[in-house]
Amino acid sequence: MHTLAAFAAVPHLHRALVVLAPGDDFLDGLEPPFLVAKCGGATRAQSVLNGLRALVAQGAQETDWVLVHDAARCLVTPAQITGLMDALAQDEVGGLLAHKLPDTLKREVNGRVAATLDRSDKWLAQTPQMFPLGLLRRALTQAGDQVTDESSAVEALGLAPRLVAGSAQNFKVTYPEDFALAEAVLRGREASGVTDRSKG
User: Fold this and answer.
1) Strand 95-100 relative to strand 162-165, pairing
2) Closest by Cα among 152, 165, 167, 177 to 6
3) CB under 8 Å to 156, separation ≥6 — which residues?
4) Per DSSP, which regions of the chain are E strands?
5) What is the rounded CA–CA span in Å between residue 93 and residue 113?
6) Left if phi > 0, otherwise alpha if psi is -120 to 50, otherwise beta: which for 193?
7) Cα–chain center distance at 25
8) 39 with 18: CB under 8 angstroms?
9) Is the full-model pTM beyond 0.70?
């Protein structure tokens, strides 16, 4: 619901589609501007591709921009979403929010450090990721089910998506300890008067 609130506060979005697994009734009754499509697949790529097809069935055009976001990144802000849209408005390819890698990066072999990698050009991919619908659909169709994000599929076409600086707070709630961290961030925003509808 935090994720949906952030997107609802972005005035330039025409429509938002929430892709759920078949039989998932948690968001039944969700009101506009949100639509629900119970067409989730076995992989992220399948779910996104099915979602794009659902958008086309709702009247979306090949040239329309689409933003794909992980609901588990529940700390994204309207300002970050708007910043991505503004940065890519005239881009021919599209791109994604990302965060420059702050930590030393190690390569591992059999549980031991095999090398320390240069981190100066490394970024952590985030979402939303924003591409023209037709381009993204073609990329996902050609890349197959195992790509882990939309940018990877577009890269496989020989294109170079733009990196737009995101935030360390736009992390994916994945591990048990992430829930406490996300709660702390949300409480901090509340205490400082920064809400889902603000520019924070």
Assistant:
1) parallel
2) 167
3) 139, 142, 143, 147
4) 16-19, 34-37, 65-68, 95-100, 105-109, 112-117, 123-132, 162-165
5) 37
6) left
7) 22
8) no
9) yes
Task: Give the list of residues 6+ apart from residue 159 with CB closer than 8 angstroms, or none.
Answer: 93, 135
Name 2's Cβ contacts closer than 8 Å, sequence gap at least 6: 74, 75, 186, 196
Q: How confident is the model over 103-135, as pLDDT tens digits?
A: 999 999 999 999 999 999 999 999 999 999 999
Q: Tens of pLDDT along 27-70? A: 998 888 899 999 999 999 999 999 999 999 999 999 999 999 99
**In this structure, which topology does domain 2-192 adopt according to CATH?**
Spore Coat Polysaccharide Biosynthesis Protein SpsA; Chain A (3.90.550)
Listed in sequence order, the DSSP H helices in 89-169 are 133-143, 150-155
Do the bridges between strand 123-132 and strand 65-68 make them parallel or antiparallel, or are there none, so unpaired?
A: antiparallel
Give the number of residues written for the chain. Answer: 200
